[in-house]
Amino acid sequence: MSDTVAARPAGALRAKLPRYAIYLLGCLIFSAGATLFIHSGLGVDPLDVLSLGLLDHLPITIGIAQASIAVVCIAIWSLWNRRRPVLAPLITFFLCGSLIDLLRLLDLSPLPGVLSLGLGVLLCAYGSSLIIMSGTGIRAMDLIVISMTQRWRWPFWAAKVSVEAVLLTAGFLLGGPVGIGTLAFLVFVDGLIQPFMAANGKLLHIPNRGIKTPAPVTSAVTA
Predict the structure, then answer these.
(1) From CA 59, how far away is CA 112, in angstroms rounded?
(2) pTM of the model
(3) Helix ranges, 62-112 (H)
């Protein structure tokens, strides 16, 4: 009996390892994309607009800034859904922010701004799709987006753009960098996340643990 009980946690851990790998890969890819956005000098994503705006006023790192923003988003999500606050998004925000801090130490000077922006768009969108599909440590901002899609039946892209527009406005008022890259993020990154999730499911057979597909309704005739 003891061997059976001991085997269950080990089996559960093995079952979760693939989703953890998808999650960590998503964090790394997203952070690389955000770093390229910053390097392009053409404007960064809305979250980094707010993070860099905070850096102009407070002696903190991007990781701490993003973790602080996550706390606010988690509080909003928790109150809205009447659920206990979750801690995993804090790890994601701090991890991605810290990875950005490290990646900014690399010499990216050979990459021209437009190329950096294009690569940043693709990497941020694909990294976001992996994090959401892993169902592990979904970014606090995306928790709000998912709640909006479930409660208000909004398209994912519309909810995503709406939330990030709030971050962008706050960051702009704090002096964060805004440019054509910021617009590219709102239009292309937010627009590509859903197609990337669909492609991951169809081509790579990655289950979407972040956004559950509603069960089909059985008709009365069929029943």
Answers:
(1) 30
(2) 0.78
(3) 62-81, 88-103
